[in-house]
Specification:
Layout lengths: L5 H10 L8 H6 L11 H16 L5 H4 L3 H18 L12 E2 L8 E2 L2 E3 L4 E6 L7 H15 L3 E8 L4 E8 H16 L21 H14 L5 H9 L2 H31 L20 H7 L5 H7 L6 H11 L25
Parallel strand pairs: 4-5
Antiparallel strand pairs: 1-2, 3-4, 5-6
Helix pairs in contact: 3-5, 6-7, 8-10
Protein backbone atom coordinates (compact mmCIF):
# COMPACT_ATOMS: atom_id res chain seq x y z
CA UNK A 1 0.00 0.00 0.00
CA UNK A 2 3.00 2.32 0.42
CA UNK A 3 3.03 3.19 -3.30
CA UNK A 4 -0.62 4.33 -3.37
CA UNK A 5 -1.70 7.91 -2.93
CA UNK A 6 -4.81 8.84 -0.94
CA UNK A 7 -6.70 9.29 -4.23
CA UNK A 8 -5.60 5.84 -5.43
CA UNK A 9 -6.79 4.29 -2.19
CA UNK A 10 -10.21 5.90 -2.53
CA UNK A 11 -10.53 4.63 -6.12
CA UNK A 12 -9.57 1.11 -5.03
CA UNK A 13 -12.21 1.15 -2.30
CA UNK A 14 -14.85 2.20 -4.80
CA UNK A 15 -13.90 -0.44 -7.37
CA UNK A 16 -13.39 -3.45 -5.10
CA UNK A 17 -16.71 -4.40 -3.55
CA UNK A 18 -18.25 -7.48 -2.06
CA UNK A 19 -20.93 -8.82 -4.38
CA UNK A 20 -23.52 -11.43 -3.44
CA UNK A 21 -25.95 -13.19 -5.81
CA UNK A 22 -28.93 -11.29 -4.37
CA UNK A 23 -27.30 -7.93 -5.15
CA UNK A 24 -26.76 -8.74 -8.84
CA UNK A 25 -30.23 -7.59 -10.09
CA UNK A 26 -29.74 -4.25 -8.29
CA UNK A 27 -26.22 -3.83 -9.64
CA UNK A 28 -27.50 -4.61 -13.13
CA UNK A 29 -29.74 -1.53 -12.78
CA UNK A 30 -27.15 0.69 -11.08
CA UNK A 31 -23.48 -0.25 -10.90
CA UNK A 32 -23.04 1.82 -7.71
CA UNK A 33 -25.87 0.21 -5.74
CA UNK A 34 -25.08 -0.61 -2.11
CA UNK A 35 -27.71 -2.16 0.12
CA UNK A 36 -28.84 0.00 3.02
CA UNK A 37 -28.57 -1.53 6.52
CA UNK A 38 -31.61 -2.78 8.40
CA UNK A 39 -34.69 -4.65 7.29
CA UNK A 40 -38.38 -3.95 6.68
CA UNK A 41 -41.63 -5.57 7.76
CA UNK A 42 -42.11 -6.77 4.16
CA UNK A 43 -38.67 -8.40 4.15
CA UNK A 44 -39.32 -10.08 7.50
CA UNK A 45 -42.62 -11.44 6.18
CA UNK A 46 -40.84 -12.77 3.11
CA UNK A 47 -38.26 -14.55 5.26
CA UNK A 48 -41.03 -16.10 7.36
CA UNK A 49 -42.94 -17.34 4.30
CA UNK A 50 -39.74 -18.77 2.78
CA UNK A 51 -39.12 -20.68 5.99
CA UNK A 52 -42.72 -21.92 6.24
CA UNK A 53 -42.72 -23.28 2.68
CA UNK A 54 -39.33 -24.95 3.05
CA UNK A 55 -40.43 -26.57 6.32
CA UNK A 56 -43.70 -27.77 4.83
CA UNK A 57 -41.74 -29.63 2.16
CA UNK A 58 -40.30 -31.81 4.95
CA UNK A 59 -43.69 -32.07 6.73
CA UNK A 60 -42.81 -29.56 9.46
CA UNK A 61 -45.72 -27.14 10.00
CA UNK A 62 -44.11 -25.21 12.89
CA UNK A 63 -43.65 -21.87 11.13
CA UNK A 64 -46.73 -22.36 8.94
CA UNK A 65 -49.02 -22.77 11.98
CA UNK A 66 -47.96 -19.34 13.24
CA UNK A 67 -48.88 -17.52 10.02
CA UNK A 68 -52.04 -15.49 9.48
CA UNK A 69 -54.74 -17.28 7.45
CA UNK A 70 -54.02 -15.28 4.29
CA UNK A 71 -50.30 -16.04 4.51
CA UNK A 72 -51.04 -19.72 5.09
CA UNK A 73 -52.87 -19.74 1.75
CA UNK A 74 -49.84 -18.09 0.12
CA UNK A 75 -47.50 -20.67 1.66
CA UNK A 76 -49.68 -23.57 0.51
CA UNK A 77 -49.60 -22.29 -3.06
CA UNK A 78 -45.80 -22.05 -2.94
CA UNK A 79 -45.60 -25.56 -1.51
CA UNK A 80 -47.83 -26.99 -4.26
CA UNK A 81 -45.82 -25.20 -6.95
CA UNK A 82 -42.50 -26.63 -5.77
CA UNK A 83 -43.98 -30.12 -5.45
CA UNK A 84 -45.33 -29.89 -9.00
CA UNK A 85 -41.95 -28.75 -10.30
CA UNK A 86 -40.18 -31.62 -8.54
CA UNK A 87 -42.03 -34.30 -10.51
CA UNK A 88 -41.75 -36.53 -7.46
CA UNK A 89 -37.99 -36.12 -7.02
CA UNK A 90 -36.46 -35.02 -3.71
CA UNK A 91 -36.38 -31.26 -3.13
CA UNK A 92 -33.65 -30.02 -0.78
CA UNK A 93 -34.86 -27.16 1.44
CA UNK A 94 -32.52 -27.40 4.43
CA UNK A 95 -30.65 -24.10 4.62
CA UNK A 96 -27.30 -25.72 5.44
CA UNK A 97 -27.41 -27.52 2.08
CA UNK A 98 -28.52 -24.56 -0.01
CA UNK A 99 -25.37 -22.44 0.01
CA UNK A 100 -24.52 -21.08 -3.44
CA UNK A 101 -20.77 -20.61 -3.97
CA UNK A 102 -20.69 -18.70 -7.24
CA UNK A 103 -17.42 -18.51 -9.19
CA UNK A 104 -16.41 -14.86 -9.46
CA UNK A 105 -18.48 -13.59 -6.52
CA UNK A 106 -16.92 -12.79 -3.16
CA UNK A 107 -20.05 -13.53 -1.09
CA UNK A 108 -22.06 -16.77 -1.26
CA UNK A 109 -25.83 -16.82 -1.55
CA UNK A 110 -28.54 -19.12 -0.25
CA UNK A 111 -31.26 -20.51 -2.51
CA UNK A 112 -34.64 -21.61 -1.18
CA UNK A 113 -34.86 -25.01 -2.86
CA UNK A 114 -32.81 -27.28 -5.11
CA UNK A 115 -33.89 -30.40 -6.98
CA UNK A 116 -30.72 -32.08 -8.20
CA UNK A 117 -32.44 -34.89 -10.10
CA UNK A 118 -34.58 -32.43 -12.09
CA UNK A 119 -31.62 -30.01 -12.30
CA UNK A 120 -33.35 -26.89 -11.02
CA UNK A 121 -32.89 -24.29 -8.32
CA UNK A 122 -35.73 -22.16 -6.98
CA UNK A 123 -36.09 -18.88 -5.14
CA UNK A 124 -39.30 -17.87 -3.37
CA UNK A 125 -40.24 -14.20 -3.68
CA UNK A 126 -42.96 -12.19 -1.96
CA UNK A 127 -44.36 -8.80 -2.93
CA UNK A 128 -44.46 -7.44 -6.44
CA UNK A 129 -42.93 -9.09 -9.48
CA UNK A 130 -39.39 -7.85 -10.10
CA UNK A 131 -36.48 -9.01 -12.23
CA UNK A 132 -34.24 -11.59 -10.55
CA UNK A 133 -32.66 -13.06 -13.68
CA UNK A 134 -29.07 -12.16 -12.74
CA UNK A 135 -29.44 -13.67 -9.26
CA UNK A 136 -30.84 -16.89 -10.70
CA UNK A 137 -28.07 -17.02 -13.30
CA UNK A 138 -25.58 -16.97 -10.42
CA UNK A 139 -27.43 -19.77 -8.62
CA UNK A 140 -27.49 -21.85 -11.80
CA UNK A 141 -23.76 -21.28 -12.25
CA UNK A 142 -23.13 -22.45 -8.68
CA UNK A 143 -25.25 -25.58 -9.25
CA UNK A 144 -23.54 -26.40 -12.55
CA UNK A 145 -20.15 -25.94 -10.92
CA UNK A 146 -21.06 -28.24 -8.00
CA UNK A 147 -22.80 -30.95 -10.02
CA UNK A 148 -20.61 -30.89 -13.15
CA UNK A 149 -23.54 -29.96 -15.39
CA UNK A 150 -23.58 -27.99 -18.64
CA UNK A 151 -27.00 -26.39 -18.09
CA UNK A 152 -29.36 -25.72 -15.22
CA UNK A 153 -32.88 -24.34 -14.75
CA UNK A 154 -34.00 -21.71 -12.26
CA UNK A 155 -37.52 -20.96 -11.07
CA UNK A 156 -38.60 -17.71 -9.43
CA UNK A 157 -41.77 -18.47 -7.48
CA UNK A 158 -43.72 -15.26 -6.80
CA UNK A 159 -46.05 -16.59 -4.12
CA UNK A 160 -48.13 -13.44 -3.55
CA UNK A 161 -48.80 -13.13 -7.26
CA UNK A 162 -49.34 -16.90 -7.81
CA UNK A 163 -46.79 -16.67 -10.61
CA UNK A 164 -43.65 -18.53 -11.67
CA UNK A 165 -40.91 -17.45 -14.06
CA UNK A 166 -38.45 -19.98 -15.38
CA UNK A 167 -34.95 -19.46 -16.81
CA UNK A 168 -32.62 -22.08 -18.27
CA UNK A 169 -28.92 -21.23 -18.58
CA UNK A 170 -26.00 -22.96 -20.18
CA UNK A 171 -22.71 -22.55 -18.33
CA UNK A 172 -21.56 -19.97 -20.91
CA UNK A 173 -24.79 -17.96 -20.62
CA UNK A 174 -24.69 -17.92 -16.83
CA UNK A 175 -21.02 -16.93 -16.78
CA UNK A 176 -21.63 -14.13 -19.28
CA UNK A 177 -24.61 -12.78 -17.32
CA UNK A 178 -22.76 -12.73 -14.00
CA UNK A 179 -19.49 -11.43 -15.49
CA UNK A 180 -21.22 -8.51 -17.22
CA UNK A 181 -22.69 -7.27 -13.94
CA UNK A 182 -19.38 -7.71 -12.08
CA UNK A 183 -17.53 -5.78 -14.79
CA UNK A 184 -19.94 -2.84 -14.70
CA UNK A 185 -20.03 -2.75 -10.90
CA UNK A 186 -16.22 -2.81 -10.73
CA UNK A 187 -15.60 -0.13 -13.36
CA UNK A 188 -14.00 3.15 -12.31
CA UNK A 189 -16.27 4.81 -14.88
CA UNK A 190 -19.49 3.54 -13.29
CA UNK A 191 -22.19 6.19 -12.96
CA UNK A 192 -25.29 6.14 -10.73
CA UNK A 193 -28.50 5.24 -12.57
CA UNK A 194 -31.89 5.96 -10.95
CA UNK A 195 -34.09 2.86 -10.86
CA UNK A 196 -36.72 1.02 -8.82
CA UNK A 197 -34.18 -0.08 -6.20
CA UNK A 198 -33.07 3.43 -5.19
CA UNK A 199 -35.18 3.29 -2.05
CA UNK A 200 -33.13 0.30 -0.84
CA UNK A 201 -29.72 1.86 -1.55
CA UNK A 202 -27.43 3.27 1.13
CA UNK A 203 -26.47 6.15 -1.21
CA UNK A 204 -29.99 7.39 -2.04
CA UNK A 205 -29.88 10.52 0.12
CA UNK A 206 -26.73 11.95 -1.46
CA UNK A 207 -26.83 10.24 -4.87
CA UNK A 208 -25.86 12.85 -7.45
CA UNK A 209 -28.14 11.34 -10.09
CA UNK A 210 -31.20 11.49 -7.82
CA UNK A 211 -30.39 15.01 -6.64
CA UNK A 212 -29.87 16.23 -10.20
CA UNK A 213 -33.07 14.70 -11.56
CA UNK A 214 -35.15 15.95 -8.64
CA UNK A 215 -33.68 19.46 -8.97
CA UNK A 216 -34.43 19.55 -12.70
CA UNK A 217 -38.03 18.49 -12.12
CA UNK A 218 -38.60 21.03 -9.34
CA UNK A 219 -36.95 23.83 -11.35
CA UNK A 220 -39.99 23.88 -13.65
CA UNK A 221 -42.24 24.64 -10.67
CA UNK A 222 -40.26 27.81 -10.01
CA UNK A 223 -40.38 28.87 -13.67
CA UNK A 224 -41.87 32.25 -14.62
CA UNK A 225 -43.84 30.60 -17.43
CA UNK A 226 -47.56 29.99 -17.11
CA UNK A 227 -48.76 26.41 -16.65
CA UNK A 228 -49.91 25.95 -20.25
CA UNK A 229 -46.53 27.17 -21.54
CA UNK A 230 -44.72 24.72 -19.26
CA UNK A 231 -46.91 21.86 -20.51
CA UNK A 232 -46.42 22.85 -24.16
CA UNK A 233 -42.67 23.07 -23.67
CA UNK A 234 -42.54 19.58 -22.20
CA UNK A 235 -44.86 18.02 -24.78
CA UNK A 236 -43.15 19.61 -27.80
CA UNK A 237 -40.13 17.32 -27.68
CA UNK A 238 -40.32 13.54 -27.04
CA UNK A 239 -36.86 13.58 -25.43
CA UNK A 240 -37.86 16.37 -23.04
CA UNK A 241 -41.17 14.63 -22.34
CA UNK A 242 -39.32 11.42 -21.41
CA UNK A 243 -36.82 13.26 -19.22
CA UNK A 244 -39.51 15.26 -17.42
CA UNK A 245 -41.63 12.17 -16.70
CA UNK A 246 -38.63 10.30 -15.29
CA UNK A 247 -37.45 13.28 -13.25
CA UNK A 248 -40.89 14.10 -11.90
CA UNK A 249 -41.68 10.53 -10.86
CA UNK A 250 -38.37 10.39 -9.06
CA UNK A 251 -38.90 13.74 -7.29
CA UNK A 252 -42.41 12.65 -6.32
CA UNK A 253 -41.14 9.41 -4.77
CA UNK A 254 -38.05 10.72 -2.99
CA UNK A 255 -39.13 14.26 -2.07
CA UNK A 256 -42.87 14.89 -2.35
CA UNK A 257 -44.16 11.67 -0.74
CA UNK A 258 -41.80 11.79 2.29
CA UNK A 259 -42.54 15.51 2.77
CA UNK A 260 -46.32 14.96 2.69
CA UNK A 261 -46.03 12.02 5.09
CA UNK A 262 -44.00 14.21 7.46
CA UNK A 263 -46.59 16.98 7.10
CA UNK A 264 -49.36 14.60 8.20
CA UNK A 265 -47.32 13.34 11.15
CA UNK A 266 -46.46 16.84 12.38
CA UNK A 267 -50.04 18.05 12.09
CA UNK A 268 -51.28 14.94 13.90
CA UNK A 269 -48.76 15.65 16.69
CA UNK A 270 -50.33 19.08 17.20
CA UNK A 271 -47.98 21.33 15.24
CA UNK A 272 -49.64 24.27 13.44
CA UNK A 273 -48.67 24.50 9.77
CA UNK A 274 -50.41 27.30 7.81
CA UNK A 275 -52.93 26.10 5.23
CA UNK A 276 -53.19 22.49 6.41
CA UNK A 277 -54.98 20.40 8.99
CA UNK A 278 -55.58 16.71 9.61
CA UNK A 279 -59.13 15.39 9.69
CA UNK A 280 -60.13 11.97 10.97
CA UNK A 281 -63.00 10.06 9.38
CA UNK A 282 -64.85 7.14 10.86
CA UNK A 283 -63.46 3.74 9.92
CA UNK A 284 -65.41 1.56 7.51
CA UNK A 285 -67.98 -0.61 9.24
CA UNK A 286 -68.00 -4.36 8.58
CA UNK A 287 -69.32 -7.66 9.86
CA UNK A 288 -67.39 -10.91 10.20
CA UNK A 289 -68.04 -14.44 8.98
CA UNK A 290 -70.18 -15.65 11.89
CA UNK A 291 -72.68 -12.81 11.44
CA UNK A 292 -72.86 -13.45 7.69
CA UNK A 293 -73.45 -17.17 8.35
CA UNK A 294 -76.33 -16.44 10.73
CA UNK A 295 -77.97 -13.95 8.39
CA UNK A 296 -77.68 -16.27 5.36
CA UNK A 297 -79.02 -19.42 7.05
CA UNK A 298 -82.28 -19.30 5.08
CA UNK A 299 -81.12 -17.86 1.75
CA UNK A 300 -79.79 -19.59 -1.38
CA UNK A 301 -76.12 -19.76 -2.33
CA UNK A 302 -76.83 -17.52 -5.31
CA UNK A 303 -78.39 -14.83 -3.10
CA UNK A 304 -75.43 -14.94 -0.71
CA UNK A 305 -72.88 -14.77 -3.55
CA UNK A 306 -74.63 -11.77 -5.12
CA UNK A 307 -74.83 -10.05 -1.74
CA UNK A 308 -71.04 -10.43 -1.40
CA UNK A 309 -70.43 -8.82 -4.78
CA UNK A 310 -71.06 -11.68 -7.16
CA UNK A 311 -67.48 -11.97 -8.44
CA UNK A 312 -64.12 -13.38 -7.37
CA UNK A 313 -60.63 -12.82 -8.76
CA UNK A 314 -59.46 -15.67 -11.00
CA UNK A 315 -56.45 -16.54 -8.82
CA UNK A 316 -58.57 -16.47 -5.68
CA UNK A 317 -61.17 -18.68 -7.43
CA UNK A 318 -58.50 -21.22 -8.38
CA UNK A 319 -57.21 -21.27 -4.80
CA UNK A 320 -60.78 -21.62 -3.50
CA UNK A 321 -61.37 -24.62 -5.77
CA UNK A 322 -58.06 -26.16 -4.73
CA UNK A 323 -58.90 -25.87 -1.04
CA UNK A 324 -62.43 -27.21 -1.64
CA UNK A 325 -61.16 -30.17 -3.65
CA UNK A 326 -63.10 -29.04 -6.74
CA UNK A 327 -61.76 -29.06 -10.30
CA UNK A 328 -61.26 -25.55 -11.66
CA UNK A 329 -63.62 -24.66 -14.50
CA UNK A 330 -61.24 -22.53 -16.58
CA UNK A 331 -64.03 -21.81 -19.10
CA UNK A 332 -65.70 -19.74 -16.39
CA UNK A 333 -62.74 -17.35 -16.11
CA UNK A 334 -63.43 -13.99 -17.73
CA UNK A 335 -61.08 -11.10 -18.51
CA UNK A 336 -61.86 -7.44 -18.08
CA UNK A 337 -60.76 -4.62 -20.35
CA UNK A 338 -56.99 -4.33 -20.94
CA UNK A 339 -55.19 -2.05 -18.51
CA UNK A 340 -52.57 0.34 -19.84
CA UNK A 341 -49.64 0.77 -17.46
CA UNK A 342 -46.87 3.33 -17.84
CA UNK A 343 -43.45 1.70 -17.37
CA UNK A 344 -40.04 3.27 -17.55
CA UNK A 345 -37.60 1.23 -19.67
CA UNK A 346 -33.90 1.38 -20.32
CA UNK A 347 -32.84 3.32 -23.40
CA UNK A 348 -29.74 2.69 -25.46
CA UNK A 349 -27.11 5.39 -25.08
Amino acid sequence: MSGLTTEDTEVTELVVKEISPSSLPKLAECALYTGAPGTSAAAERGTLLDKAIRELLVDDPTTYDGLAAEDQAVARWGLDELRTLSGGYHVETREEYLGMEVPGLSKPGTADAVCVRAQWVADIKTGQVRNYREQLAAYCLACMHEHFADSWTAHVVYVDQRLRRTYTFTREQAEATVSAVIANASSRLAEPTPNEYCGWCAHQNGCRALVRQSSEALALVKSDLCLSDIRDQILANPVELSAFAANWKLAEKHIAEPVIDALKERLAAGEEIPGWKVTTGAGRQFVEADAIARASANVSKETLILALGGKMGADKFRQFCLEAGVEVDESAVRAGSPINTLRQIKTKK
